[in-house]
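Pipeline run #58 for the internal structure catalog. This entry was flagged by the ingest filter as a single-chain record with no existing model, so it goes straight to prediction. Upstream metadata was stripped on purpose; only the residue string is passed forward. Reviewer on rotation: M.T. Logging verbosity set to normal.
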Amino acid sequence: MAGNIRLIGRGAAPVLVACMFAWGAAPPPAAAQCEAGKLLASDGAANDQFGGSVSINGDVAVVGAGSDDDNGADSGSAYIFRFDGLSWVQEAKLTASDGAADDFFGLSVAVSGELVVVGAVGDDDNGSLSGSAYMFVKPPGGWVDMTETAKLTAADGAADDRFGGSVSISGEVVVVGTSRDDDNGFNSGSAYVFVKPPGGWVSMTQTAKLTAFDGADNDQFGESVSISGEVIVVGANFDDDNGENSGSAYVYVLSGVDCNRNGQPDACDIFLGVSCDSNANVILDEWEKDNRGVHPRDQLIRSVDVPIMMATLDGTTSTPDFTPAVAEAKNRSEWSWDSIPEHYHAQVQWQLAVTGYEIGYLIVLFAGRHLETFEIEADNDYQTAQILAADEFWKLVEANEPPPTDGADNPLMASLWPSHTEQATEIDADAAIELYEARSADKLASERRNAAEAVIKAVLGEADTAVVGQQVVATWRNNGKGRRFLVKGDALDE
């Protein structure tokens, strides 16, 4: 909706239509009393699915027709309408220059100012149903029938990703949803952010990629996307936080700063919730603002009193009375802690021992959105035990002798991880049998899968997608660390 105009898609088989309503300052008592026009494609035909997607900005409306046949069956198109003060007039029809059958161009549309973006989930540039999106910039003389100004694709796109299933645009930023991406598991989903280059829109891959910090199989993160100003919202309608397929939405913010100072907008400059490290010193900005700032210390420092003790600090800060303090930052997927994990406590105590400071702050971002600070005071007895343990270890290094593996001979290690080898509890024999049988079944299943994958990989050769008819069975994906073999689906379609 934009201003006093609302656009609503409505099916009227066999041709889909879109209904436009306009009203003044006060809403009408019933929609039927304010219908100001009914939009139809000038060349509409049966099964075009005109109205499958709609978007409006000011006096311009865009309507998708994902099954239009101009470039082949279900190749798709989109139409631009303008309200001239009296009625809605079709100004242009948009198609893809490389459109082909089953591209479904127009399945998603978005308009902002003089820009239109159209999704085509069936485009095959990165494999069958990998998908793409098309940018249209209004020509100087106004909208006319045209093909795209630029084409947007995913740098890591793969078969069946369905990039372009949702699109949104605000200003110079475009967001594209890819609900079948597999980065966090099968159909976990992702979203891609595109920022207009300095020279204008050109065919390009993403500026940044967004995924859910807790993404899992079949979440379909990216099923819906929206952007307004600096805020991006991504829907995951099959997330399970409140029960199976209960769904969730994730909020991201464009920081407006060059987080890693590389001169380019990238993933570092987009963050989840309200937390960002704009000066790249590892400490979150809002903690620095609310406290006393942090001085980055990314170099290795050595204790003056005990030369074998060294540490690399995230930073140093100060207490409210300006006493020097250690700052250690963490990012955790869980929501909170009942108590500080022992290994983090040990790390900060070690840093306090190296620096000689009395106070350390453990700054933790939980679940990408909830910030907590834990104050840790220097514990001289604890640090003494750490120093003794380090000294014993260093003597073993100098003597080229392996240290004990259980740590039971060290008082500190024994207190942190006490041994219970002398204790035993009788369990039910059926439980043990079930455990062993399940483990054997898992092993056999793993061997079967490995053998089946080996056969398919051998047949694939240089190809990246294995299909049976029209169904994608498996793909090779480049995840930035190498190739990953992904199985798509659970069974062959009937």
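catalog note: The CA atoms of residues 342 and 416 lie 8 Å apart.
catalog note: Residues 5-272 form a domain with the Methylamine Dehydrogenase; Chain H fold (CATH 2.130.10.130).
status: ready for reviewer M.T.
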